[in-house]
Every structure is written in C-alpha cells, then in structure tokens.
Amino acid sequence: MRKNSIPRIILTVILFVMSLFFLFPVIWMLANSFKTDAAITADMNSLRAFVPPALNGSFFENYVTVIKDTDFIRYMLNTLFYAAILIVAGVIVNGLAGYALAKIKFPFRERWALIIMMLMIVPSETIITINFLFVAKMGLLNTIFGYILPMIVNPFNIFLFRQVFVSLPDDVWEAAQLDYCSPVKYFFTMVLPMSKTVVATVSVFTFLGVWNDYLWPSLVFTSSDLLTAQIGLNSITSNDNTTMGQTLAVITMITIPVIIIYALFSKQIVEGVVSTGSKEG
Amino acid sequence: MSFIEFKNIEKQYPGADKKSVTDFNLEINEGEFIAFVGPSGCGKSTTLRMIAGFEDITGGELYIDGKKVNDVLPRDRGIAMVFQNYALYPHMTVEKNISYGLKNMKVPADEIKRKTDWAINILGLEEYRNRKPKNLSGGQRQRVALGRAIVKNQKVFLMDEPLSNLDAKLRVSMRNEISKLHRELGSTTIYVTHDQVEAMTMADRIVIMRNGVIQQVGKPMELYEHPANKFVAGFIGSPQMNFYDIILKGNIITFADGNTMKLPDSVIFKLPAQQGEMILGIRGEDIKLDQQNLDVFSENKHSAVIENAEVMGNENNLYFTFGGSQTIARVSKYEISGIGDKIDFVFNPAKLHFFDKNTEVRYV
Ligand SMILES: Nc1ncnc2c1ncn2[C@@H]1O[C@H](COP(=O)(O)OP(=O)(O)OP(=O)(O)O)[C@@H](O)[C@H]1O
Ligand SMILES: [Mg+2]
Questions:
Q1: What's the mean pLDDT in A110-126?
Q2: ipTM of the predicted structure?
Q3: Is the pLDDT of residue A277 over 80?
Q4: Mean pLDDT within A245-268
Q5: Closest approach of chain A CAs to the CA of B180, in angstroms?
Q6: Where is pLDDT greater, at A125 or B189?
Q7: DSSP string, B222-257
Q8: Which of B46, B83, B210 best tests ligand 1's pocket when mutated (most atoms within 8 Å of CB)?
Q9: How far apart are CA B163 and CA B177, in angstroms?
C-alpha cells in the first residue's frame, strides 16, 4: 500500500471529485427543501443554491406542511410494512427454494436450477400484465395480499441463496440430525444464521425493490389507504398546490431510508454480490 | 449376542462401477473400542457412515443392539458421531453446541445443565464455555465435538479421523484423552483412521481394510505378530516390514542377490511342505546386530554397508541394501552406526514371515 502512495492520492482526489459530481443534485435538493419557493428562485443562479437557509422558526416549514396536509407519512409506513412482510416471506420462500436446489437431491435438480436462473433475465415488466390479470381474477385487487403475492418469489434471490448454501458443510447437517434437529428447524436455526450475509443482502435488495417500485403498486392499489410512498410522492408532486420546496421535502423524505440502508449495509451488499458471484461460476 | 453386527454389508455408490465396500462381516461387542484402518479410499468412512445411517446400505444387514437398522433414521440408531472437520454449529457458543442435542431431546433444564457442566469439566473447556467455535484452536474444537457426542449418553460412538487436523503433539495427547474417555464411559466406539499408530495404541481390536474388503480383524499385537497377508504385515508397524523375493529349497533360502540363509528345522516345520518362490518378511527389530545374536546365528551372518541412518535417540533405523531389497534394521542406541559403516547382522529365524508369492497370504 505504502509503495503506491502517489497514485493513491491521485485516485482519492479523482474519486472525491467524482463523488461531488454525483452528490451535487442531492445537496441541492436537501438545501432547497428548507426554502420557500421565492428563496429557491432567488438563489437559483448562485452558489447559495447549495446552502440551506438560516436556522429559524420556519426552517422545517415545508416538511411540516407535507406531513400535516398529506398522508405521506402513512404511505411511507405502508411501504415499510409491505417491505417487512416481503423480506420475511421472501427469505423463507426463496431461501427454502435455494436450499433445495443446493442440498437436496431430487430428479433434474440441475435443470430446475438452470430454468430458475434463466428466469432472472425476464424483466418483471413483461409479466406484469399476467400478474395483474391473476390478481384481478382472484379478486385481490386493492388488497395487501394481492400486492404481496406475485412479489414473493424472486429468481435472483433464489440464485443468491443457492450459491451460498452450496458451500455449507454437509457434516453440520449430519451432526444436527444426530442432535435430533428436524430439517425445518435446521433451516431456520442453523442455515439462516450461518448465512447471515446473504440474508442481509436479500433483505436489502427486497427493501429497495419495494421502496422504489412504482408500477406494480400503482396497478394493484387504488384505495388511498394502502398506497405506497412512491405513489404518494407522485400524487403529491403532481398536485398544483404543492410548492417546489414541498416537492423537494417529499423527495428528501423518500430518499433518506435508502441512504440509511446503503450506509448501514454497503458491506453486506458488496460482500453478498461478490461472494455469490465468484463461487461456482 | 454381539452389540453391532455386520452381515455381508455392501456399498455401491450410485453411478459407481464398482463396490466401495464388499462383503463386510464383523461382530462388535458392547464396550469395545474398534479401529478401522487402511489406506485412503479403502472404504473406512463409507462403512462408518453406513453405521450412522448417512449412507444407504446397498447390500447385507446391519444390527445394532439386536435391532436391524438398515432402514432406521440416523437419529434413531442410538449413535453419536465425531467428525473429521468437527462440524460444530458456528453461531453457537461452546456450551450451546454441547447442550443442543439434549435440548432437542426435551431433557429437563436442570439435567441439561448438569450434563453440560460435566462434559465441559471433563474436557477442560471451562474457560471457553461462552466462546464461539471460530475463536477456538483445533484441539479445543475437537474437544467440543467430543463433548457434544458424550452428553447424549448414546451407546455407540463413531469417530471419523477425529485427530487428523491436529498437529502431531496434540494428536498424541488427544489420543490419550479419547482412550481415557472410552474407559470412563464404556461406550462402544468405532474409530476410523489411516494412522496405524492410532489404531495400535487405542483399539481393543483393529479392522484392516483394503479396496473395500476386510483384510484382517484382531487385537493389535495379533496383527503385528501374525499378519494374515503381506498387506497387513506392511501396513502395521513402523518402519515397514522388510520384504524379499526368495526361493526356498530344502532348508536353504536364496535371496535375489544370491545370498543364502539356512533355516533351522523349527522354522521349516512350520512351513507345511512349501517350497520354491515365496516372499520373506522380517521386521526391522528382528534384524540383529548385537554380538550375542551374531554368535548364536553365526552361520547365517551377513554384512552390508549403511546407506542411511535415522537417529532417533532411543532407537535408530539403519538403511542398507540386502537380498535385492532396501532393508531397514531397527537397532538400539548401543548398535548405532554411521553412513558408510560396514555392519554384520543376522535375521532372527524365529521371527521370519513367509508369504505366498501370488496370493500374498501368509503361510501359517
Ligand atoms: N459419494 C460418493 N460417490 C461415489 N463414490 C464415492 C463416494 N464417497 C466415496 N466414494 C468412493 O468409495 C471409496 C471409499 O471411500 P471412503 O471415503 O470410504 O474411503 P476412506 O477409507 O474413508 O478414505 P480416506 O482415508 O481418504 O478418508 C473410494 O473409492 C471413493 O472414491
Ligand atoms: Mg475417510
């Protein structure tokens, strides 16, 4: 490391400039989300566009208005709730599928794995109409269940789980059998805790997917009680009465959880993708 | 009746073109310590895993405690197992690893505590009680694995090369610990190893396997003194037994290099009318260099030049060429010689082994 100190400095500077470049819209958004529309317009052409206003009584005005006058907090909580359900259901369903493909012998196992892997390349938009028709035919439109059901199974997550479970040692399962551990109990009390990284990775991906999804919830949900944050964001920002500052406040609010997740789990995300990508081709 | 009984046990892995274990017959008594030894790939682990129930038995019948267990689940066979790579539960502490089975057996909490404490105590794991396996040394991990096996009071212990991941010194001390545990608990133990020293020092009886077939079953000294064939003779004992291609005519042996040796009648008498080509075997310690033996067997005295010497202190291995083969003599520290020294030696005729040239079976 020491040897390359000059290239390292250059690299650091380049990365710093680049990250500023990527960050500047975020900083702009954050700074202006505290301003009145008049102030935003006034600051528009100067560097003050990147500086928040002075801290005074009306500093959080935009946020307070959004929280008071709209149901945005409720939409965010809805989305958190859906994400939580989908994380639990997704880890169980995709995890079990991945485990079966990794460790349980059954006819045509490799074929199955291949088919599931091929499903990864099908973009979800192409099957969304079919999903919609299914859910509609089952009378599940406008229900949480109807929203959740088609989202649980995820070939990419099955594949991630499988890659990690393949390398779990078989003798631990054998030892567990002699300790009177049932297969189901083994999965939940041994396999998942031994594979914390992939569980975290899948959970994070699931959360981000649910949080950022717009199309599917907009098809399933019409009742405003059940809406998700992205739909809420859209309806708030497209309302003519919403000011520029309020729009930026809503966007900031919807961005914060994503930033927190990345900050907390960046290691798991990278580790998960790298470790699963490098094993077994 | 024997406690574990193998009746014509066979194993052929799916897709394999030959059997990994063939016609395995054995009776094990309650409380016995049995070692399975043999070279890599001879079917030791396969046999052990059939006892555990992790591999299907493809032929024959297996009885444990009088009950046929071919189709019994591993957990219902009354066995505990220690694995080569320990197979500890990585996210559980030492204590939880040891008590996990008892918990699943719905043993009352106070009894779990008592038994776990006992195991932790007997294995000297007190200070590691709350550590996770990744923070333990190999020896400590193997002790946890032993603890996990002994708390459940199972009647049969299976161990598959439990010491092979440990360094030499630790191996010796764990060897003694396992022997001691076996004496204290009295459980029937089947111990798989490819190390004949482990088998010799620990087992009541040894089962030697080769290519999936039992070669010989017996007490350690029986195998050492009366090997059934050349393979067993060569496998048991270190340094390896010396082998020579010889021709026996009357009572005269002719070695490949033309040297001869006259056999006393007592030896000829034991070789029922066998003559002609055969294989002669003698252990290193039965090649004698001391004056007393040289005098007694003076008519068969030979000489050679030392090519290599392994000096270990109490005993020394001298390498030289004789009879057309590399020969290793194992001598005491009083007969130490250096490379290039010329030595006189005799074979102790009472300790000669004769094997059939084709079948390699030992003549009785
Ligand atoms: N799962 C398997 N499928 C096919 N063949 C196998 C399988 N496991 C083992 N074998 C074969 O069966 C034979 C016996 O293997 P086994 O593992 O019992 O040997 P071992 O005596 O335990 O050897 P080692 O000392 O190397 O552990 C070997 O020829 C091996 O290649
Ligand atoms: Mg083995």
A1: 89
A2: 0.87
A3: no
A4: 90
A5: 23
A6: B189
A7: HHHHS-SBHHHHHHSSSSPPEEEEEEEETTEEEETT
A8: B46
A9: 11
Give me the residue spans of the domains in chain A: 2-66, 70-275
Q: Which residue is closest in CA terms to ligand 1's atom 3?
A: B13
**Whole-angstrom distance, CA of residue B149 vs CA of residue B78:** 11
Query: Given ligand 1 and candidates B12, B13, B207, which is best to mutate, with the most ligand atoms within 8 Å of its CB?
Result: B13
Chain A residue with Cα closest to B156: A178
Please, what are the domains in chain B? 4-235 (3.40.50.300), 242-356 (2.40.50.140)
**CATH code given to domain A70-275:** 1.10.3720.10
pTM: 0.85
All residues of chain B having their beta carbon less than 8 Å from the beta carbon of residue A180 are: 75, 101, 104-105
B83–A175 C-beta distance less than 8 A: yes
What local confidence, expressed as pLDDT, does residue A3 receive?
62
Query: Whole-angstrom Cα distance, residue B291 to residue B307?
Result: 21
Which of B73, B83, B104 lies nearest to residue A179, judging by beta carbons?
Answer: B104
- Verify whether ligand 1 is closer than 6 Å to residue B45 (CB atom): yes
Q: What sign has the CA pseudo-torsion A33, A37, A39, A40?
A: positive
d(CA A11, CA A94): 40
Q: What is the pLDDT of residue A279?
A: 37
CA dihedral (B179, B182, B183, B185) positive or negative: positive
Which residue CA neighbors atom 25 of ligand 1 most closely?
B40
> Measuring from atom 28 of ligand 1, which residue has the nearest CA?
B41
Question: Mutate which of B45, B164, B213 to test ligand 1's pocket (most atoms within 8 Å of Cβ)?
Answer: B45
The shortest CB-CB distance from A178 to any of B79, B84, B88 is to B79
Amino acid at the residue B270: K
DSSP B259-301: -EEEPPHHHHHHSTT--EEEEEEE-GGGEE-SHHHHHHTGGG-
CB pair distance less than 8 Å for A178 and B100: no
Decide: helix, strand or coil at residue B171: helix
B193 lines ligand 1 (CB under 6 A): no
Nearest residue in B to A179, CA atom: B101
What lies within 8 Å, CB to CB, of B319 at 6+ separation is B306, B307, B308, B309, B310, B326, B327, B328
Atom 26 of ligand 1: nearest residue by CA position: B40
Running along chain B, 364 residues long, what does each successive block of 10 average in pLDDT? 93 94 96 96 96 96 96 95 94 96 95 96 93 94 94 94 90 92 94 94 96 97 96 94 94 93 88 86 95 90 94 91 94 86 93 94 87
User: What are the chain B neighbours of A169 within 8 Å (beta carbons)?
Assistant: 85, 87
